[in-house]
Design goal:
2 copies of one chain form a homodimer.
Chain A: H1 11-19, H2 29-38, E1 40-44, E2 49-51, E3 59-65, E4 68-73, E5 79-85, E6 90-91, H3 94-97, E7 105-108, E8 112-118, H4 119-128, H5 130-156, H6 159-174, E9 178-180, H7 185-191, H8 196-208, E10 212-215, E11 219-222, H9 225-230
Antiparallel strand pairs in A: 1-8, 2-7, 3-6, 3-8, 4-5, 4-7, 9-11, 10-11
Helix pairs in contact in A: 1-2, 4-5, 7-8
The structure holds a DNA duplex (30 and 30 nucleotides).
Pfam families (chains A, B): cNMP_binding, HTH_Crp_2
Protein name (chains A, B): Crp/Fnr family transcriptional regulator
Keywords (chains A, B): DNA-binding, Transcription, Transcription regulation
DNA sequence: CGTGCGATTGAGTAAGTTCAATCGGGGTGG
DNA sequence: CCACCCCGATTGAACTTACTCAATCGCACG
């Protein structure tokens, strides 16, 4: 696999990059410089598999730009989307803390600039810079809360409810009523625990009811958010 | 609410207690003593709510003995079991790392001895004893993996598959083919994203097929594990 | 510019839920 | 310590929702 360095210019740009990562937000300039020395930036084309189930990747990856899909292959053999990661997020931590093989796949959905940090180096940073460990704890805890939310939603809510809740969540994070789905509807369906057919039907139903408008390029306009939240 | 101290005897016993908690496994004797000084032990009767959604409990709780159920109330208004915690596990960390209110409930399923540690103290320990932070990371990461497993299982696998997988998991952790369900079937059903009726039918079906035997007191005997894993 | 994959729509099916009634066991109170 | 009683467990029947299979459409990536 051929990979290119990001910002071949020099260390300075790399340091700027590292400083913008939430994980290292609390570090001082000198500490940042130390981290920057060990971090290796790479640019990955769209649809690149970063690691797969069964692999024992040896690095923590930090997304600078782009989008990464985390998914599993179920016993029945089909893909189940777990989570979508974007700029500032990290992945590959599960094989670091467990020391076992990954049970999921990570693939880029767009061209993505990603920094890698060897597990050994990360371990050292966790011990010397406690704020990094605390930040990781915060992130994992939040991920856990989100995943638990997905779980109870899939167990207890019907399809309409889940679709509406997803649209409202994207709308809230984008701060707009005219949102663009970050991923394909197929992936949205998987994330919500639905088939693409069902998602398509629910969205059509919402549009018929006058609550939303469907536009090309995965753009959806929300007209009646109260109606959606009442589902 | 009235609570009693565990081991009113003295500090020494408390230190022994703390030493057995995985979270503090790596600490030296002097460090353990320091932790033990801040930890407050309590004994809770069965069916005691430790904290609820909306509350902002200010302590990390560590289970010494007993069983705790973590659950949510879904939009539809029914209880969704998220996870069961036992001796050595901790809870209440979500309100520590986020600084927001809990979105779930914690209730004892048996009489439970639980140590509390103020969030402020925990924060101090995380900074001074990095191994504690790393241990918390490991735990949260594993919980995340388990929850993701539940998620993809609920999305992709049918009821038979989930029930069989659960029986095999309990059997594996108990190291026996004659297992006792740690929780009521009602709670098992919720954990698996099923109704109690469906779980009951699946178990009856398994028994009819000769794969298991159902006994009183939630005891189940597995006769044909290969058959169960093939579902 | 072509093509392959995602999206949509339709019809039929099957799985699990819901509602209801009964049974049984373990926990609580006397 | 025992008996009562409540709640969990079980079983039955009808239903409903989302899935499956299939065919067509259209956009977007290469």
């Amino acid at each position: 696999m051929h990979q290119h360095h990001v910002h071949p210019g020099g260390e300075r740009a790399l340091e700027q990059l590292v400083a913008r990562v939430p994980l290292f937000a609390q570090l001082s300039d000198s500490e940042l410089a130390e981290v920057a020395r060990r971090v290796v930036p790479h640019s990955h084309p769209r649809n690149t598999q970063l690691y797969g189930a069964g692999e024992r990747n040896a690095s923590l990856m930090i997304i600078h730009s782009g989008l990464v899909k985390i998914y599993r292959i179920t016993a029945a053999g089909h893909e189940q989307v777990i989570r979508i990661l974007g700029p500032g997020d990290f992945l590959g931590e599960s094989t670091f803390v467990d020391r076992s093989a990954a049970d999921h796949f990570a693939v880029t959905l767009e061209k993505s600039d990603i920094c890698s940090l060897q597990h050994d180096d990360l371990h050292a940073y966790l011990l010397s810079f406690p704020s990094v460990a605390v930040k990781m704890l915060e992130t994992l805890s939040r991920r856990l809360a989100v995943t638990e939310n997905q779980l109870s939603s899939m167990a207890g809510d019907d399809a309409d409810h889940r679709v509406a809740a997803y649209l409202l969540a994207v709308s809230a994070s984008d701060q707009t009523d005219r949102l663009r789905l970050p991923i394909t509807k197929k992936d949205v369906a998987s994330l919500l625990g639905l088939t693409p057919e069902t998602l398509s039907r629910k969205l059509a139903h919402f549009e018929d009811s006058g609550w939303i408008s469907l536009h090309p390029a995965r753009v959806i306009e929300l007209h009646d958010k109260p109606a959606l939240s009442l589902l």
